[in-house]
Amino acid sequence: xxxxxxxxxxxxxxxxxxxxxxxxxxxxxxxxxxxxxxxxxxxxxxxxxxxxxxxxxxxxxxxxxxxxxxxxxxxxxxxxxxxxxxxxxxxxxxxxxxxxxxxxxxxxxxxxxxxxxxxxxxxxxxxxxxxxxxxxxxxxxxxxxxxxxxxxxxxxxxxxxxxxxxxxxxxxxxxxxxxxxxxxxxxxxxxxxxxxxxxxxxxxxxxxxxxxxxxxxxxxxxxxxxxxxxxxxxxxxxxxxxxxxxxxxxxxxxxxxxxxxxxxxxxxxxxxxxxxxxxxxxxxxxxxxxxxxxxxxxxxxxxxxxxxxxxxxxxxxxxxxxxxxxxxxxxxxxxxxxx
Length: 339
Prior knowledge:
By secondary structure, this protein is of the alpha/beta class. The chain folds into two domains: 3-164, 3-Layer(aba) Sandwich (Rossmann fold); 180-337, Glycogen Phosphorylase B (Rossmann fold). It contains 13 helices and twelve strands. It has helices at residues 3-19, 41-47, 49-57, 72-76, 92-103, 119-128, 154-164, 180-192, 214-227, 242-249, 263-272, 281-289, 302-308, and strands at residues 31-35, 62-67, 83-86, 109-112, 132-136, 146-148, 198-202, 232-235, 255-257, 275-278, 293-299, 316-321. A six-stranded parallel β-sheet has the order 3-2-1-4-5-6. Helix 1 packs parallel to helix 6 and helix 2 runs parallel beside helix 12 (281-289). It starts with a helix and ends in an 18-residue tail after the last strand. The model is unreliable at 6-10 (pLDDT under 50).
């Protein structure tokens, strides 16, 4: 363990000793607060069914979410969420202010799926003063009234968390958000380019180790076109990568790139594709929500894969790399997998 890691463990241990106090007695959940201040796009997708299932069980239950303004667009589009509270990540003053504000609103249950609680997260939870707290792998904490234990897919974690507060879950199909303008813009893009029955491919994940080189992208596109000649391919992009991918696409026929500006463009492109090929788990979860056929690239991490694997009802094929996505060659994709 490095010195930096040792300091982190020490800080968390001291914080737990000071802030981890037993919560109140169990009560019926009438007001539920979800802690998503550290959430990302994929986290939202795999938990999106929760809000629907709560309201299906009892429309009068109040649902609120703590998140950042950066992620607010996801929650604002969800018709089942009643209130949002914003914090700035890593701003302890924000955590204190919002914690005191939420304490006055008297939430019955707080659901926090955070794997490792930082001291500021634990402080925020204490300040909220909810009657009950549901966590993930938090059986060693006094604050948490109940905890979902063990490595499992995050969608199952949320399902079990709701069942711990006596809310039955009938359907864990994801609710993928949509935006009418983005949908219309993608329809126009597809019509203008006469694109139909296409593959959507995402060659870029968040970490540098999950970004494919231009040379390797060309090899993969060439390989796919060899095995499904004439099949249209749409390369999923974002503003920083649009020029690079647009230039690359000009070297091939039937390869297109949309000047994507937001996630709703990406959602619309995945909704209309025949199959997604991707290294990015957020797009994999979006495709799972639409029950699309998927070819996915994942790093060799058994725990991470169990928590975030594709959950589509259609055909799914997975290739694993050791340290870097560029270790993989296109020939590792079986031609029979490509639609």
